[in-house]
Amino acid sequence: MRRMAMLILGGAVAAAGVGCGSDSSIDYGVHTNDHGENPAMEKKVITVDSTERIEQNQQLGLTAEGTIKGKAPGILLRVIVQDVFETSFTDGTKAPPGMRVMAVEVQIVNAGSRVFNDSPAAGTTVVDAAGKKYTSLPGAVAVDGGEVFPNPFGLQPRDQRTALVPFVVPVGVNIKQVGFRVDKGGESGLWRVP
């Protein structure tokens, strides 16, 4: 059964450990989506190209869109983690004993002025309930449920692409968060999987 994801995004996420080399420093803080209960959070939302931009770990609803800047000028992506689900390889690749195959479905829209050439798989991680981070599979594989992001990957301004990022994780591990970083030095998004 497919599960949807919630988004926590911003510079504080990078400081909280996403993409910083720490496997256990993930922010598990509780954040509210009800601005009436926490008016301070409402001040952290600003508008970028008619989409909401989230800062300081503000949480939005399911399949929320995050606008994430890259380090280089002109790199701006709108990212939605649409789904996280268990799948299987369809190209003859075998998962090691005691492991299972998971896929993260990601939609990326190039809202910037430059071509986005980084591989989405390289910037995507999943985090389990214990805070352990897993990186995506290297190289090209095929999985059931959809197309995997190609590598190399190029997305022209105003173009969009939805594809899968596959992972191999231990059997019994539940994926609780999905991280996405634009590039080294760029912003990070962190989606919470219910």
- Assess the beta-strand content as a share of residues: 35-45%
Helix and strand string, N-terminal first? EHHEEEEEEEEEEE
Spans of at least 5 consecutive residues whose pLDDT stays below 50 are: 3-62
The percent of residues in helical segments reads: under 10%
Strand order of the largest sheet: 4-1-12-11-8-9
What's the N-to-C terminus distance?
A: 13 Å
**Helix/strand/pairing class, anyone?**
mainly beta
What are the salient characteristics of this protein?
5% helix, 2 helices, 4-stranded antiparallel sheet, disordered N terminus, 194 residues, single chain
What does this structure look like?
- The protein is mostly beta strands.
- Helix content is 5%, strand content 39%.
- The chain contains 2 helices and 12 strands, in the order βααβββββββββββ.
- The strands form 3 sheets. The protein has a 6-stranded antiparallel beta sheet with strand order 4-1-12-11-8-9.
- A hairpin with a 2-residue loop joins strand 2 and strand 3.
- The N terminus is likely disordered.
